[in-house]
Amino acid sequence: MKLPALACCLLAAGLIFGGCSLTTVSGGEEITIIAGERSDGMFFDPAEITVLPGARVTFVIKNEGSQDHEFESNQEGEAGIGEIIIPPGGTRRVNWTAPSEAATFPFYCDLPGHRAAGMEATLRVVPDREER
Amino acid sequence: MSSSFIITLREGLEAGLIVAIILAYLKASGQRPHFRTVLISALAAVAVSLTVGAAIFAVAGEFEGRTAEAFEGSAMLIAVGVLSWMVVWMKRQSAGIKKTLETDIAQAIGVGSAFALAMIPFTAILREGLETAVFLFAATRTATPLESTMGASAGILAAVALTWGIYTGGYRVNLRVFFNVTGVLLIILAAGLLVNGLKDLHEAGVVSNLGPHAWDTYGTLADNSQIGKFLSTILGYDSSPYIGLVIAHIAYLVLALGFFAFGRAPSPRPAATIARPPVAEAVPEPEGS
Fold first, then answer.
1. Residue B196 gets which letter from DSSP?
2. Using CA atoms, how far apart are residues B135 and B84, in angstroms rounded to an integer?
3. Of chain A residues 77-96, which have a CB less than 8 A from chain B?
């Protein structure tokens, strides 16, 4: 095998192995969440969200505050939503697929002091829409 | 192309070439019985590197939240330092690596010390292995475990195949071009790691202020889109970076690429190509570390 052909094979292998598992970003049911600050602390609004098992949703997080906020639920046993920073006035979108069984997860802003100031909310997965 | 693939390909080929240089010298000097010692010590170095790598991952797994971010951010900055040293500083030192290896081997055989002979490939490959462990750990912080594992495995397999092809004379590789290209790629990857490391330390509260956001291109290319994630992993792409990160990114690229481009030439020979061993001169030294 000539070197250029070998190099092409190696490059293709890298592209395939490195790129095949990237998740696609596709829309689900949109759920808008407002993040910000107020006189008694910091908040996510709504403070509780419920979705059906297996539902594909898109969280639309709007930062209406004056400082950076974060949205995540990524520690062991949580929803598996990686952190994303929302700058002041900015909007970020996060896709998530709910587990197939009932569960409850926290989501929060993990910037120093923000979670303690109130930026933690609840994400509930419930089997019956009537319970939502 | 995943960063793990580039890292293991480059480091794997460097380690492979070290073994090839030693084996070619032993073969040419009629010392084939020492092959076993060299190969066992090389495998031992790989085993120690894997153990250290596993320990790093295990320790990191004990942390959560901001502590984990601080640990990972620190690991990324250490990896940037190791990588910069490897690519830039070692470029100056590598000109005589082949002669040094051959001299050391001749001395070890001369005094009849199997231990001294075994330590030569062991220490050289252990250095490559530890560099790989640190850098892989840092790189995997911004990629999924599957991406990292598959990319790293593909890089190792490619490095083994290239080394074998070079040693047996099947491939003629311009090592200067290879190490120059991968050197530039690794500097670009390191710049991305620098940004991601500083970002982690900022989120952990270790770095308190990186200034305001320089711009917001999320509407054009989102960080968490398919392409955005890829660029974030490789280049440290951020749709709304802090000004401090932008300055650090540009400053690192200018300095590292400048040293790499204008540092002392590694070898007076114009183009190092590999001819068919077992003649010792047929295997030139790697131009990286």
1. H
2. 11
3. 82-85, 87, 90-94
